[in-house]
């Protein structure tokens, strides 16, 4: 099975530069034969899906609602969970082998924090603004979200390096490995 | 976006004949460019995924646990929801445009019943045993699960006809349509 | 901790007789110091909550939406899960030590089927119509929903006997017992 | 219906001082006839439940697992959601009229962030350590978690004032009001 890469980031309006960087992340994921998971909506989610889709990747959106009305145009599959914004984000994180953070407001920060709880590797795309550029300041030793040191946050500042590192950090045995226990 | 076909049916040991029928359903879904959604485990789920996968289809498993340890070998993507058997089934139904029932015990019956609650079209593959061959007896007028008449259950007895009918019943505007309100 | 009794049954309009029987079930649960869990809406859910509330019981509704707008007037606590009708029902069943079925359409049948999957004891209040009076016909040996024989459905035809049996069937060590594994 | 007060804070070992403060918060909630919702486990959750329970309050735990094995001894009702730590926290927040934060690591921060997403009022108990004492530093204007300014975080440094403010901030029409839309 392919590596499942969850990409999280700001919805709504984003700058041209962030859009371009997100697009490149999608492209690199596709070129490496990863499957892209995102929240399936606009902003970073749309740009990254477009980049993946236009380079032969498979793109999945984990939607908050029961309908596809807020799905962007670059999804191969929209899972219409009906679980709401917050809980669908948890399903997205749970289903990812590795998580990439691009820009982001409080919703994105929430997702990083959930990834940390589940000990999922997180790569922060530095230089994309929002929480992606502030999160290091609130960590312990530049990388831990609390004393438990579940995982180290990692940082890169180009799309290629972000995606390379993501694939390196994803658990090797993508198929049948144990990701630890939540419940 | 492709039609999302949810296939539900018995886990665990199934007869050669049921396995073959499930395999053919998977094959037909793939040939029609549908995306196959299932519970991702063994039994009917494995056979249908194998049939789709070996004919170029894309196969998704909505898993009960947080790991892929019970995923069958024919999935392109396993969503490790960690929601448990019962709730992951609801996410599967919510994310399907149309549902196909093959054989099945109480768990499968539960999924049909959930599909009915959400007004999702259901095609029953007759002649596959289990609840697929008993469900008509408990319906009203051979097709409704209660007085509300949310949807008509439909029945076919060959893989090709089951899948043809499924694609005919799936809502036309697969992308942005409204599937009604659950919440 | 008190015994947690989940009561499931038809929403919407119900007959005077069913209303009275549901009310009596609520009353008996309260007199026995059980906590009443229900879907928190109208119909059977309202009648049973009223019976419990007017006899000093504590009544909880596991609501489908994020608001309390469809909560009946006899709840001490409405949990506004926002998970939708189908998934909130699973949370209700998961949180109950024992389940009582009164009347019911497809939604209620779905809940019994979920209870069976989780091996929760179910008491059917016979003579209340709907699925409560039809379910025996579709069981194996009058009590099992499929071959796995997870639990036996039990039947009584008066409110007192239904609730007595429910308390007898609830796992003894209500606090720290293991209810088996779903995930 | 009573005001539903969600209290969030560190699990596991906590200092005597934090334990005392959490206990007092529980006591004040009980004296004001609020219903206490928490994650139902040890640490802050246990101390606050003990305080409420010993002063006549009703205490509810929204548990991560399907069993009550990790429930503390001061719960009137444990809802065994089986949804896992992260998603059960969302159900807790969704079901609260107002949220009180005491101490806390990354899990608690995650819950505050979820509360903010849902526009639930949050009162931070200052002087209890952990994220409760650091969160102000990362807000905008001392109170917003991002530009959307969904809600203002509020701060108090004694149990009585924290609870008084919580009751003041809880939406007036606790029963049938609209808490906005998540899905």
From TrEMBL, chains A, B, C, D:
Superkingdom of source: Bacteria
Q: Which InterPro entries match?
A: CHP00725, LDcluster4, LOG_family_nucleotidases
Q: Which GO terms describe its cellular component?
A: cytosol
List the protein's name.
Answer: TIGR00725 family protein
The source organism is Selenihalanaerobacter shriftii
């Amino acid at each position: 099975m392919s590596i499942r890469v969850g990409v999280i980031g700001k919805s709504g309006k984003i700058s041209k530069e962030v859009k371009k960087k997100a697009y490149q992340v999608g492209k690199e994921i596709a070129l490496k034969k990863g499957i892209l998971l995102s929240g399936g909506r606009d902003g970073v989610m749309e740009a990254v899906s477009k980049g993946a889709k236009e380079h032969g990747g498979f793109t999945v959106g984990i939607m908050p609602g029961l309908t596809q009305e807020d799905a962007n145009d670059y999804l191969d599959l929209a899972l219409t969970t009906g679980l709401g914004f917050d809980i669908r984000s948890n399903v997205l994180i749970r289903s990812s082998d590795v998580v990439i953070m691009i820009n982001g407001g409080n919703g994105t920060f929430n997702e990083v924090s959930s990834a940390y709880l589940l000990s999922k590797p997180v790569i922060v795309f530095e230089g994309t603004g929002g929480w992606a550029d502030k999160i290091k300041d609130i960590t312990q030793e530049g990388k831990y979200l609390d004393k438990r040191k579940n995982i180290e946050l990692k940082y890169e500042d180009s799309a290629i390096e972000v995606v390379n590192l993501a694939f390196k950090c994803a658990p090797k045995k993508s198929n049948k490995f144990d990701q630890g226990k939540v419940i």
